[in-house]
Structure formats: structure tokens, C-alpha cells
Amino acid sequence: MINLILFGPPGSGKGTQAAKLVEKYDLLHISTGDLFRYEMGNDTELGKQAKEFIAKGELVPDSVTIGMLKNKVNANSDVAGYIFDGFPRTIPQAEALDVFLSEKNESVSALIALDVDDEEIVQRILNRGKTSGRPDDNDESIIRNRIEVYKSETSPVFDYYAQSNKSVKINGLGSIEDIFERLCDKIDQL
Ligand code: ADP
């Protein structure tokens, strides 16, 4: 099984690339952001819980996020592997994922980080906000808060998987096709 973590700051292109990767590698794309938006759209209890954090550009608590992720994986076990997009976003989430996969005799294959600088990210997200309908994409101070949260809480996850030589970084600037090729090069080495 391939268990790939697609990593990088908000707006770095994870969702765009994941959509292309699933076609090529027959993997299931699991985006915790998409799962939260689905729950919010259906106004479920989980959606209501998540909404207050997402609106401020903060992380949804680990307990909520980890439970939701496990449910999604367990409901879709008949696949060649997973692309985790937007998860894990904290060290406790990474530790929980490792335990969860090891219980299935599986492990994280690699973490691939898309490297994009802050100003490019802000511009990309503001641009996406024009059509995404996401309130968290339409306010520069919320976007900057998401970037700060990424630096303080999420970027340590890169170092966490680097300890087992699983983390790699690729240039996240350029055309969608160019970045896709860089990603495929890394995946084909696994
Ligand atoms: P982006 O990568 O553009 O920030 P996402 O769709 O991945 O967007 O996430 C949107 C929001 O959902 C995040 O800002 C955060 O509030 C919440 N979220 C998504 N994934 C997680 C996670 N793994 N842990 C906590 N909160 C999360």
C-alpha cells in the first residue's frame, strides 16, 4: 500500500495535485478540509463543532479531526492506498496516524511537502476566494493566521517524519503540470 502525506502550507496546491495523483495511482484522496466542509454543508454536529475554528483560521481540535479521519479510512479499506491531504497537521495527529496505520500493519510511505513562499500563498488563496465560496479564503488576516498556525503547529510534522527519512520537499512553484511531474518522480522512487 502507498500511504502518502501531501504536505505544505494552505494554498500550496495540495488539493489540485491530489486530484491528479488519484487518477494516476488509483489512491483514495482524503482531505480533512473537504470532510469538514461536507459536514458543515450538511449542518451536522461535527460540522457545527468545526465551523467556529475554521472561520477563525484555527485548527479543529485533534480529537474531532482524528476520529473523523479514522472513520473515513475504515469506511474505505478496499483501496491501493491513501493520499492524506491536510492531515496530519499537528504532532499528536501524526502520532495517532502512525498508531492507527500500524494496527493495520501499514505505515506512512512518505511525506512530500510543496514548498511555496508566504506572499505567493496569500495571493493564491485570495484569488481562490473569488470563486471558492470559502469565508476563510476571503479575509487576509484569517489567511495570515492560517499561515502562522501552519508554521507553529504543522511544520514540525515535516521534521517528525524526517526522523525516519520519510520527508521530502519539492518546489511548489511553476505550472500545475511541472509540479505534478516533480511529485510523480518522488512517488515512483518509493
Ligand atoms: P487549506 O489547506 O487551504 O488551509 P483545508 O481545506 O486543508 O485548507 O483546511 C481548511 C480548514 O479546515 C483549516 O484551516 C482548519 O481549520 C481545518 N482543518 C483541516 N484539516 C485539519 C486538521 N488535520 N486538523 C485540524 N484542523 C483542520
Major sheet size, sense and barrel closure? 5 strands, parallel
Q: Low-confidence stretches at least 5 residues in length (pLDDT < 50)? A: none
- Number of helical segments? 9
Radius of gyration over alpha carbons? Answer: 16 Å
**Mean pLDDT metric:** 97
Which strand order do you get reading across the main beta sheet? 2-3-1-4-5
Helix content: 55-70%
Shape: globular
- Separation of termini? 11 Å
The fourth-level CATH homologous superfamily is: P-loop containing nucleotide triphosphate hydrolases
CATH topology: Rossmann fold
The CATH architecture category equals 3-Layer(aba) Sandwich
Number of strands: 5
Name the descriptors:
Rossmann fold; binds adenosine-5'-diphosphate; 190 residues; 5 strands; 5-stranded parallel beta sheet; alpha/beta; 9 helices
